[in-house]
Description:
The chain is of the alpha+beta class.
Amino acid sequence: MHGRSKGNRPLKGFKAFLLRGNVVELAVAVVVGAAFSKIVDAFVKGLINPVIGAIGTKNLDGYIVCIEKPCVASGGELTKGVGLLWGSVAGAALTFLITAAVVYFLLILPMNKLNERRKAGKEEALPGPTELELLTEIRDLLARQQGNGGGHTIPSPYDHGGGNRTRQ
Length: 168
């Protein structure tokens, strides 16, 4: 009932939120993703753009459709005129596709195969009775230990009225 303990509740909740596994994993993913995007950008600028440059301009940012002339672009931005910088959009789309392909083929696909193997291994390793069959077997064994004579009661998990059923 102290003002101090009430004030600490939000801080304790915030601390619990930060220390949850999901938040830490998300933070790691963001940091790794930022580093990975630099690699993909370097790949596009160092390898893809020169290949495209053999056909036209060396940098995709230089591709413009001019709406109002004269169109002058510098560093991927229009400095004069009105134009559509479709080369910048194409470069961003290419970067996205390369990133998605690398993530899929190097991370998602191997993880899916690993999960399938684990699942298949568990299914093969665990053939046997179900949980319900085991519980029924235990119940029957307990009933036999009490004796098979009439009038012995076996508690039923389905009888919520507090009563027992009588085994005949």
